[in-house]
Design a protein that fits this description.
By secondary structure, the protein is an all-alpha fold. 76% of the residues lie in helices and 0% in strands. The chain is built from 15 helices and no strands. Helix 7 runs antiparallel to helix 12.
Length: 343
């Protein structure tokens, strides 16, 4: 290829990340649309997905350091602020989305939009963006861990209370399913951490593939059930565009509320950055398995808003983090004001 030809090929902006895993998720959705699991295959896929969800939460528990989590309680005001954003402000905005039905969102998409607002915050991306913006990285680690831990209990309870029959309600069977598939494996992982924690640390990359593979299986099973049930005929391109617009407004509101709210509460620059990134995000890794447990055969439409929001938050927060990385720090401002020695 000549130099002239190569110059004509535009490169993707470095501030616009296209998550390769999202592309894999999209490919999984396409596979489910073309070759959905049905009959005996659906039973096998469903049972395997159930085991994968349990394994996923076992690994979450085994990798979460109890000592680091307890040590992070020292910064309790910051963590309470992030939890309030995640499990109070977000759900209130999700409830307000009822006003978008039926003119903007269908009832099914609105339920998925509300479920998105109930999911815990992320850990990895919150840490990455906080570090890029020169914020309080240890606080972001603890805030994300606390949110994930709280979400194991709060997300199913909030879903049962706010979504009612769509998420199984408060029936004994649904609560027992949540306990057995999510909470028990997580506690087992915490108990066994002292013996297997070092092994998990050494094989982090391999276990990351297990995590992502489990989520892909959950997505394939959920969207296969949706295809067999014919629910995708209810989603039009116009409805998808309306959903994206509603999620853009949701993300903009949460980024604004988390930042200015942190400032009003007296947090400094570094803490404000950690609060903004941890308090405005939602975890795809935690939300997808929870949706499969809570919604069952209706999980495909329930997870669609979360998948779209995940990619949107990555792109927008990458831009914000890069801009915040250029903020003058107090030390930088002090040095810039000092006279430069001459001669």
């Amino acid at each position: 290829m000549s130099r002239r030809t190569s110059r004509r090929i535009p490169a993707l902006p470095t501030w616009l990340p296209v998550d390769p895993y999202i592309l894999t998720l999209i490919g999984t959705v396409v596979l489910a649309a073309l070759l959905p699991a049905s009959g005996t295959g659906a039973d096998v896929a469903g049972g395997t997905a159930t085991g994968a969800v349990a394994l996923l939460f076992f690994l979450y528990g085994a990798r979460l350091s109890t000592a680091e989590t307890l040590d992070g309680l020292k910064h309790w005001r910051l963590h309470l602020t992030v939890l309030a954003c995640t499990f109070v402000v977000f759900p209130l905005l999700g409830l307000a989305s009822h006003g978008l039905v039926p003119y903007v969102l269908t009832p099914q998409l609105q339920e998925g939009f509300l479920f998105l607002c109930l999911v815990p915050s992320t850990i990895q991306s919150s840490i990455a963006f906080t570090s890029m913006a020169r914020g309080n990285v240890p606080a972001a680690i603890c805030a994300g861990s606390f949110s994930s831990l709280a979400g194991i209990l709060l997300t199913p309870l909030l879903a049962a209370a706010l979504l009612g029959g769509s998420a199984g309600g408060f029936s004994l069977d649904s609560l027992l399913k949540i306990v057995l598939q999510l909470l028990v494996p997580f506690i087992a992982g915490q108990v066994l951490r002292r013996w297997i924690g070092a092994f998990l640390t050494r094989h982090r990359k391999v276990l990351g593939l297990v995590d992502r593979g489990s989520i892909l299986l959950v997505v394939y099973t959920a969207f296969s059930e949706g295809m067999v049930a014919g629910i995708w005929h209810q989603v039009t391109p116009a409805r998808l565009g309306a959903l994206l617009a509603a999620e853009a407004v949701l993300l903009a509101v949460m980024l604004t509320v988390s930042r200015h709210g942190a400032k009003r509460l007296g947090f400094g620059r570094e803490d404000t950055i950690a609060i903004q990134f941890a308090g405005s995000k939602k975890s795809l890794a935690a939300g997808l398995p929870m949706a499969s447990v809570l919604f069952g055969a209706h999980a495909s439409l329930a997870v669609l808003p979360l998948m779209l929001f995940h990619q949107m938050q990555l792109m927008v927060c990458a831009v914000i983090a890069k801009r915040r990385s250029r903020d003058p720090l107090p030390d930088d401002a002090t040095l810039s004001q000092q006279p430069v020695p001459v001669g």
